[in-house]
């Protein structure tokens, strides 16, 4: 009897040892703080570097100069306002640099540099500094800067450059160095220098510089979806390769620096809305995949609609916010006077973000209308 009890205790002890060895041990610290603003912004810059590199490969040194100028304009503007306000400079958090890079990627490759400086100044001054700095801005600063030049310089903002043009690594696009307030240099003169054989290899999109959205909307010419997905088409500096932007977005999701639900909701809203119109009249409306991979929808969904300050944080709010942006984008593209509507859709989503967050705020357990009525009575 005693022997059997001893054996039983040995069995229990061995089971306890087995359970103990299954415990996972890790070195300290066991509690980690959330990533800082500087860490988040640096990771966003890392994610944008491949997009910038492909833009330079596609359009040449003019895009490199454009991105550098917009970045410097945003950083210096923020530093200048901090100096005037006699507060420590905030350029160390890299948020101004992110704004500058994003702004440069939303502009045409041959956009005049002095206009790019104006866009950077307006974006930081009006959309960020005047609201109290980072964490208080209502709208995405890069899109505010682009919206200003869209209204102030409509010809320059809609002048496109051929992709993969020869000489793009040795010569600047003439309009890049336009004198302030002077008549812009026509890109057509630069394109006419391309040989006839090269024009044939570039195709209609490359030679005319027209974007796939403009060709589809105004000339009923549909660009191959595969070309847009890979980035073999004209457009703004960073709005062409949907595949590359998607991969860069996956990096941010993997690093937990971006809420994946927002870009998914934006693309889902655009896809469903475009699908409804395409099924109703496929001859006049583009197919949903064309809508997803054309223009700045992918860039806006991944890098701009996900602005942590200007977007909701509630679970239902992020889905409503993203679907609204996708829906408005398609409506503007199909029925608006412009071929692109991502910028206005995101700015509208930013404006509606506080209301969306208030409406979709989860109810705290133990509270509600009945409890509120009892408290009032």
Automatic annotation (TrEMBL):
The chain crosses the membrane at residues 45-75, 113-139, 229-254, 260-279, 291-310, 316-336. It holds the Pfam family NQR2_RnfD_RnfE. Its cofactor is FMN. Keywords: Cell inner membrane, Cell membrane, Electron transport, Flavoprotein, FMN, Membrane, Phosphoprotein, Translocase, Transmembrane, Transmembrane helix, Transport. The modification FMN phosphoryl threonine is found at residue 211. GO terms for biological process: electron transport chain; transmembrane transport. It comes from the Bacteria. Its main location: membrane. It is a multi-pass membrane protein. HAMAP family: RsxD_RnfD. Part of a membrane-bound complex that couples electron transfer with translocation of ions across the membrane. The complex is composed of six subunits: RnfA, RnfB, RnfC, RnfD, RnfE and RnfG. This is Ion-translocating oxidoreductase complex subunit D.
């Amino acid at each position: 009897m005693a022997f059997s009890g001893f054996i039983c205790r040995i069995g229990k002890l061995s089971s306890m040892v087995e359970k103990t060895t299954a415990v996972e041990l890790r070195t300290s610290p066991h509690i980690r703080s959330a990533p800082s603003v500087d860490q988040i912004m640096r990771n966003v810059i890392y994610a944008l570097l491949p997009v910038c590199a492909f833009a330079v490969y596609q359009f040449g040194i003019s895009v490199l100069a454009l991105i550098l100028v917009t970045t410097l304009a945003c950083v210096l503007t923020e530093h200048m306002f901090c100096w005037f306000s006699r507060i420590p400079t905030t350029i160390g958090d890299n948020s101004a640099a992110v704004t500058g890079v994003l702004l440069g990627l939303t502009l045409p490759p041959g956009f005049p540099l002095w206009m790019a400086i104006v866009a950077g100044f307006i974006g930081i001054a009006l959309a960020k500094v005047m609201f109290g700095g980072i964490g208080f801005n209502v709208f995405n600063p890069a899109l505010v800067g682009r919206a200003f030049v869209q209204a102030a310089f409509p010809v320059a903002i809609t002048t496109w450059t051929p992709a993969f043009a020869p000489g793009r690594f040795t010569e600047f696009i003439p309009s890049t160095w336009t004198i302030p307030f002077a008549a812009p240099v026509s890109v057509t003169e630069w394109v006419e220098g391309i040989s006839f054989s090269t024009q044939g290899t570039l195709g209609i999109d490359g030679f005319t510089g027209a974007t796939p959205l403009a060709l589809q909307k105004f000339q009923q010419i549909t660009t191959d979806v595969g070309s847009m997905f890979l980035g073999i088409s004209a457009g703004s500096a960073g709005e062409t390769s949907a595949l590359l932007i998607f991969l860069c977005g996956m990096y941010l999701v993997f690093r937990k620096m971006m809420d994946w639900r927002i870009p998914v909701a934006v693309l889902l809203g655009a896809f469903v809305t475009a699908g409804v119109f395409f099924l109703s009249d496929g001859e006049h409306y583009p197919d949903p995949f064309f809508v997803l991979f054309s223009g700045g929808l992918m860039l806006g969904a991944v890098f701009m609609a996900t602005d942590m300050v200007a977007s909701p944080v509630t679970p239902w709010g992020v889905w409503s916010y993203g679907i609204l942006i996708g829906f408005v984008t398609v409506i503007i593209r199909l029925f608006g006077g412009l071929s692109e509507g991502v910028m206005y859709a995101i700015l509208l989503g930013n404006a509606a973000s506080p209301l969306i967050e208030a409406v979709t705020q989860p109810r705290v357990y133990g509270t509600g209308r009945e409890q509120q009525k009892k408290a009032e009575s």
